[in-house]
Amino acid sequence: MNPLGVSTWVWTSPLDDDALADLAGRVSDWGFDVLELPVENPGDWDPARAAKVLTDEGLTATVCLVMPPGRELVAAPPETIRATQDYLRHVIDVAQTVGSPVIGGPAYSSVGRTWRMTPQQRLDAYDELRTNLAPVVHHAIEAGIKVAVEPLNRYETSLLNTVDQTLTALDGLPAEGVGVLLDLYHLNIEERNVPDAIRRTGSRTAHVQVCGNDRGSPGLDHHDWPGVMAAFADIGYDGALCIESFTGDNDAIATAASIWRPLADTQDELATAGLTFLRGLTS
Ligand code: LER
After folding, report:
1. Residue 283 pLDDT more than 90?
2. Atom of ligand 1 at shortest distance to CA of 257?
3. Calpha distance 38→104 (Å, rounded)
4. How much is the mean pLDDT over the chain?
């Protein structure tokens, strides 16, 4: 049975210590197993304090890396790349402190940055990504953590949109330290057949985020949930399924994630209805 989680982004951004403690209590009471914690700015919340809060609430953690403009691992000045590597190493250290097995997100380019590439320029960009991600992956291996690289839909990046592109880009990096984050929202936009894409990712699947096709509650939507769950069972994925959606009440995150309308009556309802649906699928 996959542990079920939810991102604090459903309610708030950026996360802080008080919101984390409040959400941990509520999420645990509803029956979630995992709280997903984004590290937007180092220092927003205290990892040691979070670790204690989560243990007290009987939760485990997954950690998200965040790539706003200015965080880049390709096609950027050396100082930007070095600062981004430092940031990612910091997120790995945070993950180690809170006991997360992964750091997940688009660890290659800032969200919303798109540019055209010839096929050769694309291969060169993947080569540059491997070079610049490698030291981060080695830091992850030393910490016993995996970097879960998330392909995003074409409106949020032009570098990695599909699982096949992501597998190509990561080829040659050590599998024990880096894999693929499968986010059903992006897979639904970019993959011709989502269960087949999950099967092709196979043992390289490092983390999974879920939501409805509209980024609302899982289950109130048109995803092929039985097909998706069968594919996860086929590849032996026993990691967390974390609901990722975003509050529309916050300018920064609502704009970054294009949340222009409410996706549920309340954010609590989005999470709890999704949990009930996913529990039904996984038990
Ligand atoms: C981040 O996990 C993500 O899915 C992006 O679409 C946020 O804009």
Report:
1. no
2. 8
3. 9
4. 97
- Ligand 1 atom with the smallest distance to the CA of 105 is 2
Which residues have a Cβ under 8 Å from the Cβ of 68 and sit 6 or more positions away?
A: 40, 110, 111, 256
Pocket test of ligand 1: the residue of 62, 109, 147, 152 to mutate, having most ligand atoms within 8 Å of its CB, is 152
Where residue 252 falls among pLDDT bands split at 50, 70, 90?
A: confident
Q: Residue 183: CB within 6 Å of ligand 1? A: yes
Atom of ligand 1 nearest to the CA of 153: 6
Which CATH number fits the domain that encloses residue 65?
A: 3.20.20.150
CA angle 75, 76, 80 (to 5 degrees): 145
Strands 4-7 and 102-105: unpaired
For residue 223, the SS3 value is coil
CA distances from 65 to 11, 105, 274 (A): 17, 5, 23
- Ligand 1 atom nearest residue 66's Cα: 1
Length of the chain: 283
Please state the domain count of the chain. 1
Distance from residue 152's CA to the centre of ligand 1 (Å): 7
Residue 59: domain span: 4-282
By alpha-carbon position, which residue is closest to atom 7 of ligand 1? 257
Give the pLDDT of residue 250: 85
